[in-house]
Amino acid sequence: MQPQARVVVIGGGVAGCSALYHLTRLGWTDVVLLERDELTAGSTWHAAGNCPNFSTSWSILRLQRFSTELYARLAREVDYHIDYHLTGSIRLAHTPERCDEFRHVASQARAQQIGFELLSPAEIKARHPFLELDGIRAGLWDPLDGDIDPAQLTQALAKGARDAGARVYRHTRVTAIAPLEGGWRIDTPGGSIEAEYVINAAGYRGAEVAAMIGEYLPIVTLSHQYLITEDIPELIARGAARLPLVRDPDVSYYLRQERHGLLLGQYESRARAHWLEGLPEQFAHQLFEDDLARLETYIEDACRRMPILGSVGVKRVINGPIPYAPDGNALIGPAAGVRNFFHCCAFTFGIVQAGGAGRIVASWIVNGEPDWDVWPLDSRRNLDFANRRYALSKALETYQNEYGVGYPQEERPAGRPAKTSALYERLRGLGAVFGARAGWERAVYYTIPGDPGGSECSFRRPHWHRAVARECAAVATGVAVLDLPGFATFEVIGAGAAGWLDHMIAGALPAQGRAGLAYLCSPRGGIVSEMTVSYLAPGHFRLLSAAAAERHDEDWLLGHLSQRHGPVSIVNLTARHGCLVLAGPRSRELLGRITDADLSNRAFPWRTVRTIRIAHGEALALRLNYVGELGWELHVPAEQLANVHALLVEAGSELGLSHFGLYALESLRLEKCYRSWKCDLSIDYSPLAASLQRFVRLDKESAFIGRDALRMEAAAGPRQRLVPLLVEARDADAAAVSVVYRASEAVGLVTSGGFGYRLQRSIALAYVRADLATPGTEIEVEILGDRLPAKVAREPLYDPDNLRLKG
Q1: Using CA atoms, how far apart are residues 583 and 599, in angstroms rounded to an integer?
Q2: Which residues, at least 6 apart from 431, have a Cβ–Cβ distance to it below 8 Å?
Q3: Hey, is 543 helix, strand or coil?
Q4: Parallel, antiparallel or unpaired: strands 31-34 and 167-169
Q5: Are the beta carbons of 20 and 198 closer than 8 angstroms?
Q6: Full-prediction pTM beyond 0.85?
Q7: Which 3 state secondary structure label does DSSP give 216?
């Protein structure tokens, strides 16, 4: 084995070979792949090989589309035969909710040039004559779906990489990984190899490889079964013509032609986990024992739906290991806290996602960032609460709901509560309904007697909109409080703190005693993170960002930490503080009852940050909020949170104090056109495209990351701009990734949408073509299959002069 390489890929499944292939396509040919057995020996070889484009996530749909486009040409490009059948597919809808999901996804797909269509039962029958359609309302047609031979695909990717100069070492097990100056040493029984970069593409052994560098990855191995029937005379009679693949997500199975038989696979409710005490030393090209008892009801239903399935016997059962992260999405991207180590593993839909995933991780290494934002797959999204117990619980839940409707809001219960503030039980007693955000239990809304019971999920306005309306009114007319635990909180200290931060952010630092929004950019100018920066004292700053961003932002900050401006250190304070958001026109009156601090406009104007005494402790009070009313964020030491809340409740009893939740917060922030990280803000868009130019200083001396790219964009003018839209909606608001049209042309994409209760209007924030970003421009938004009138408005929609904030 060679002693050195620029990149070492660990794992010879389809994902590892794709990463190797795409590295060579980007010009890096000094690359090596290490496989402990034979290529495809893990989960790849026994995969069913289905290649759907369907996803409710814009970025994952794009990733899968990249794969299917690659697979259509790969055999020719590398001169290696691949059995790839483009049969198209039909997804069946039993319920109105499923039809709504299909309409929403079809709109996304068409915007990505994939010709999804909704089919009537008669149209389904015309494309698939063997289906019985009782109880079926509609079908979703994907013309570019099909199936591919996983082994041939993997070998083709490996051949393409080898032909470009990559080396593949089989039967080479990695035994240890050690950091070096500027790289890594990878040990194997046959010797060691040094590399600048490492990619962990070890599939269900991904956590085992990550542990070699001291990182825990939440991966659980489940078993997934499918069966293949004997030949069916009706299919033999069709000759070379192949049936479309069928998925019945409301029952939870897929069914497709396999030669002259049928292949039936299920995501059953009795999912089974394996290897909870550790992976076996050897499990190459092996399967688990059949467990068909778990599948009986699914088989019976599929036989009723397609009677020819039950006319023959079963030829083979495949029951193999499949890795699951807690949310079912793969783990791709940098390992947190170390340099030049990347993950590309834990794929539950590895065959269809491997092509795009290999490209993403390769471009991340070669170009310093991925080709597009892939936060749903980012390996840093799982925080410390995602331990083994949590990962197991969520993996089982995700598997059992693999074909669940992808609602805009759904608060699934498994693994909860993982993290709670000191107020959790108290708020539950007040009627709080909770959702989990980055592991933290946060109230999403509050019930009162007479409210409908139970949760409701829908693409249309659910019953909890009544509660949201109440809470928005309380914030607008009186005073209300929101418990918001989990803010990612970092303290930046040192003589070089100001100089370093100025280099990191695109805009200007706030003055001492003030707070302001700051944007951290990628080299291409995309938005990496949004932070609230508070300048507390010389050499002392506090940074706040989204709870989900904790590991991501800490990794970015530490990865770019420099002492060239002077000494600087970063401390993660996230676990030490809670946050209470106090908002509404009577918030000053209420806060004044529990502190002696001068809260007047003269002494405590908008965007001021100050430490104030409350009861037996102190709180860092920021006079700003995410709702657009007079108010404060009170960042309180965790041990004081319950006391401060109790004082607010007691003092607020005469003022009509209310509580509000995240769903109301979302409505209120939309009216103010406040952006949301990883919804409206991502590396796909720059601060200029996001209409945040007021937070960018292109002429400042500090050469902040992304400055050159932003200067070029400013000179040319952004091609897209984020604008607020007032939508003539009906009973459904524009969900994220609703498509914006002008006449018959797709001209933009909604990133956030909802109903604004202070304005009594349906609102969307959308990136649209720059020439259409002028207020008053009339366009359309597609909501659940209908294109509805919308008009570009001026931001902010509510309180445009910020008089209520500054009052």
Answers
A1: 14
A2: 446, 447, 448
A3: strand
A4: parallel
A5: no
A6: yes
A7: coil
Quick one: CA torsion of 663, 667, 668, 671, rounded to 10 degrees?
170
Candidates 378, 374, 252, 278; CA nearest to 325 is 378
Of 105, 12, 19, nearest to 57 (Cα)? 105
The residue length of the chain stands at 807
Give CA 263 to chain center in angstroms.
31
Instruction: Please report how many Cα atoms fall inside a 13 Å half-sphere around the Cα of residue 497, on the Cβ side.
Output: 22
CB-count exposure of residue 208 (10 Å: 0-12, 13-18, 19+): middle
Round to whole Å and give the CA distance between 661 and 508.
32
Helices (H), 375-459: 388-400, 424-429
Rounded Cα–Cα distance for residues 635 and 614 (Å): 11
CA dist 302 and 516 (Å) reads 58
Minimal CA–CA distance to 143: which of 117, 121, 123, 122? 117
C-alpha distances in angstroms, 336 versus 215, 242, 801? 8, 46, 41
Alpha-helix runs per DSSP H in 141-252: 150-163, 206-211, 233-237
The residue to which tokens 């239990």 are assigned: 441
> What pLDDT does residue 453 have?
82
Measured CA to CA, the distance from residue 670 to residue 752 in angstroms comes to 8
Provide the 3-class DSSP secondary structure of residue 130. coil
Mean pLDDT over 223-240 rounds to 97
Share of the chain above pLDDT 90, in %: 98
The C-alpha R_g of the chain, in whole angstroms, comes to 27
